[in-house]
Amino acid sequence: GNIARREATRLLTERQWKRHAGNPLECVCIADCLARIQRYIVTKLGEDWIFLVLLGLTMALVSWSMDYASAKSLQAYKWMYGELKGNVALQYLAWVSYPIILVVFASLFCHLVSPQAIGSGIPELKTILRGVVLKEYLTLKAFVAKVIGLTAGLGSGMPIGKEGPFVHIASICAAVLSKIMSIFTGVYEVKTNILTVGCAVGVGCCFGTPLGGVLFSIEVTSTYFAVRNYWRGYFAATFSAFIFRVLSVWNKDSVTITALFRTNFRMDFPFDLQELPAFAIIGISCGFLGAFFVYLNRQVVLIMRRPTALTGFLTKHRLIYPGAVTLIIASFTFPPGFGQFMAGEQLMPRECINSLFDNFTWTKIWGSPAPPGLGRSAAWLHPQVSVFVILLLFFVMKFWMSAVSTTMPVPSGAFMPVFILGQPPWWSRRPPQLSRQVQRYPR
């Protein structure tokens, strides 16, 4: 690159000599100034700091924009359902048609613009990081298809998750920014450290967790991880997470810069020693259930790949499968129907996980008049059914729905649905405002 720049400077100087042969001193001065300006721009704008800041800022804006658009879509979804109150037939029609339209649009848009945007993108990214060249996976077309398709999928309310595809989006953004920076540096190459930083930023700006993003990038590139990539990933992920939370404050979604999912456990006595065996049991159970989740998802994919008449028909008509899956899931979650025994489906995904972080002891609340201050957590209470039955039904239904939804040909990732499945709200402790109504531990 340096040799090419010197050669270009020499050719430019000769050209200017021929053009201004009458004043050679002026030509040399102009050529020298141009060379100095070029070296200054290359030195300053070609450094990693500028690239990392631009990557973090871009991904924070993209993440916040997607969250904002999907939240508005879900609000419109709930508003349309509420406005049809009193007519169950129209409510059901609106409840199932809205997500079907968005999911079918996401599938069709990705298929027409960039089929590489379908799915999570993490397996393909791991393949690229191991030296295999996959065409069209790190292009601007894949970026546009991934962002628009994922926003539509999240706005439909389907349990698909955002974090997996966002790692792919961040890697694409890193590759495109690297190409733009080549205007100043003169050399363009998608390096492993650039994609590794993209992985860290993709997780960091979703959850506001820079350390988690760096650790995730290490897991993705487990075969080889250079030490020099630690500070790159951490700096970019920290900057992206900070801007992401600042945008939430600017939009008045939160009062100040805080954690994405807050808790109010006491710091002087955060847990009881008697709870440690229960935490161990939860960890073991989640390990087995996680393996079963992967197995169930794989079986659905293998069934869809079998050479049968049904799979051939679905392959020929690509929009029928996502529409049918969305219809089935929306029918099960219809609130006046079976959805009233799932409770959590009355809440949108972000509201659901926030309510599961609430600090209530359900064994003391159920069966008695609901205390004041429950808020969104009141959706988990049913007058005829125990809260534990509600939670069990929600877990079972959410489990298979998430496993099946991630097989649809749309940008999807199962991180957030799996996090929701791992929330055991009956182990939470009492908040200060309910100290008279409930005890500290659910005995």
Automatic annotation (TrEMBL):
GO terms for molecular function: voltage-gated chloride channel activity. It is found in: Membrane. Signal peptide: none annotated. It holds the Pfam family Voltage_CLC. The chain crosses the membrane at residues 49-71, 92-114, 134-154, 166-188, 194-218, 276-298, 319-338, 380-400. It is a multi-pass membrane protein. GO terms for cellular component: plasma membrane. It comes from the Eukaryota. Keywords: CBS domain, Ion channel, Ion transport, Membrane, Repeat, Transmembrane, Transmembrane helix, Transport. This is Chloride channel, voltage-sensitive 1b.
